[in-house]
Amino acid sequence: MLFIEDDDAIRLALRMALEDEGYEVVEAHDGASGLVQFGQHRPDAVLLDLRLPDLSGFEVCKAIRATSTVPIIMVTAQTEAADMVAGLEAGADDYITKPVVPKALSARIAAVLRRVSYSSPVDEAHAEVLHFGDIELRREQGVVLKGGVELSLTRTEFRMLCEFAAHADAVLSRDQLLEHVWGYEYLGDSRLVDAHVRRLRLKVEDTPDDPQRIVTVRGLGYRLISQ
Q: Which end of the chain is more exposed for a tag (fewer CB within 10 A), N or C?
């Protein structure tokens, strides 16, 4: 795991806590060195503070996302709601707020690592290739095409699309998506879901501001239109 954090005390404390949980941790104190460490070590996950002294956490997140679908958990202050949403829309998979509780962080990391290897439950009779208009989902290969062109989805976006595909034309609530995509069996922050739906729409919709494929059902959640 790569931990990018400029506060030495926080970085040391959390690194020691994560190592006690069995994680191997590589540290970086700013964005530039974090990107160097990422290129050298190719970690299984990245823990990224948004407030860094050189490159912002947003810039680091976007740079990593340009070449990798590695799970990214961002760290933000509780008062930085706008930054949290912006970080998710920059490509982060999840977030945790300061002060960080080591056990809660370990649980988040375990959840994102489980999602890397977990396949969403699509009916095996239709698992090979699914079509929704000009969208082609090849779940077993982890590939999504739009109009024959492969889309670059993060792992979380791909899992979300698989979850929608498994329940095409049915309404999925935010709590259902939190449980089945993120693995959180509790009432979580709906902004986590909303930000990822917006990112997914940017990639699968012809007009993301007027979505026709993944639609909002007011007061209930979201629905994938199969036809």
A: C
